[in-house]
Amino acid sequence: MSESKQAKQEIIGKLFVCEVQGNDGEGIGTEKMPFKSLLKAVTHVNGEISKYDVQVRKEILEPYAPAAKAALKKAVKAYEVQQKKAAKDAERAVQDREKAEQQKAAELAKLEAARAIVLEQDSSLPEAQYIRLRDSTAYRGKRVKVSGWVHRLRVQGKDMMFIVLRDGYGQIQCVLTGKQCHTYDALTLTLESTVSIYGVIQELPEGKTAIGGHELICDYWEVIGKAPGGDEAFGNLFTADSSPDLLLDQRHLVIRGDIASSVLKFRSITLKAFRDHFDSQNVFEVTPPLMVQSQAEGGSAIFDFNYYGETAYLTQSSQLYLETVLPSIGDAYCMTESFRAENSNTRRHLSEFTHCEAEYGFITFDDLLDRIENMIVSVVDAVMANPISKQILMELNPNFKPPKKPFRRMDYADAIQWLKDNGIKKTLVDENDNPVLDENGNEIKVDYEFGEDIPESPERLMTDTIGEPILLCRFPVEIKSFYMKKCPEDPRLTESVDVLMPGVGEITGGSMRIADYNELMAAYAREGFDPKPYYWFTDQRKYGTCEHGGFGLGVERYLAWLLNRYSVRDVCLYPRFKNRCQP
Ligand code: 4AD
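The joint structure predicted for all components is written out below.
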């Protein structure tokens, strides 16, 4: 090539393109790291490809050769098209950004302008009476003020908004129109904000539906407390499908939901129904201490704490204290918390539960069974007679059928036989609780035998199969608490009872108590208890004893059964179980 021609082309470098092994991503155009395409080479030098000696290789075994002119021309063309498109895209992006900024500015301007729109009450209207939403039907046609939380919100066009307001007592649909929808507060309203709404509750014409069959036509409204929007908006915190842990972390907000709030109301009505039942039977309520220094229900599952330098416990049961009040106030009951340091994470165990316990003097075992049965049925009757709890029960457990007296009465020994007859067996284990295997490596299954505790799973299977409430009676001495009275007809057994309900299993445990002083001392000895801390309990046998008995019912299990909830955790305000002690 002549010197003059070289100068004219101003070749300033070499670029390599290997169509087989090149790489447009990582290549840099050298012989070692060639590009894969001519287009990449052109792009690399911003289109000034004529200043370069471009070498191309199409087959791996071929040497590099100067790029064909036509191919170069085509690559330059493609580069120019690409450049034009990029320029257009950039221009559009600028336009989009400007448009978004304009929109935002317009929205801000609209919001600022909205600040100037101030609603005023019409003084010619009758004064609004503040009502709770439970009374909304009674106040139809009158001007009222209602206050509560924005449960649901729907904006329809510029001039209409629907707010479903919730005040804990009920919900009502409120209709806001015209200027009421143009204020700053209207434009920025969020779920769970608190508002007061004034207006008249009107019955809905046929064909239209809303909660309660009416809606509140707003004539004035105001915000009390605005809830956050954006990432922190209520609707972004959780959904019904969120993990159980997240739902429990947010339980303080979850309880605002329809189901959780219904359960809490139902729980309140049920607690009152228990109290009404005892009241109707002239049984007094006591509130025993929950900080104690004796154990009622055996050793392991108990929380201890430092009580001014001494060890004390959170009570497992108030039964022993209830026994002490019989000579003072007669039959007695309590509805307080009991605590069990349960290591198991089952759907029917809590670390803290509401325990409804009662104690009766001068009764027989049969009297006790009747009293338990009567209480369970009478509380069901009471919640069915209350329109609020009845509606909740029908919504949450539409197939519920009230249990009928008398409940099936079954002895523990019959339950063992039932398990045998129905082929419900257990895994044989060695002294270390490891399964024993047969020669083929399979676990060996054996029958439950008299004297053994019937665990939750077979007990549930039996109860669900039988499908009706069962009073399971007369458990062996070894598997029951120290204070239980032995059966006069068979000293291997106790006058004890568990109430089993389909779906949840045991909801109540009770027994006749040892009335005889010497027998009680023997029971302490049998269990290895030091009688000293129980002196006050023993004194009941010393200073005028009587045949007596009682029971404890787990309120959460009773509610889980009635409302067909999966777990006892679902019927607590803030459930406590292993690794969960907040909120
Ligand atoms: O069978 P339990 O342990 O009996 C007693 O505590 C007796 N001292 C009661 C008495 O006779 N006064 O418990 C009675 C009931 C059980 O049937 C169950 O419903 C409930 O209390 N319960 C629990 N509920 C939720 N979580 C737990 N960890 C529970 N432990 C017992």
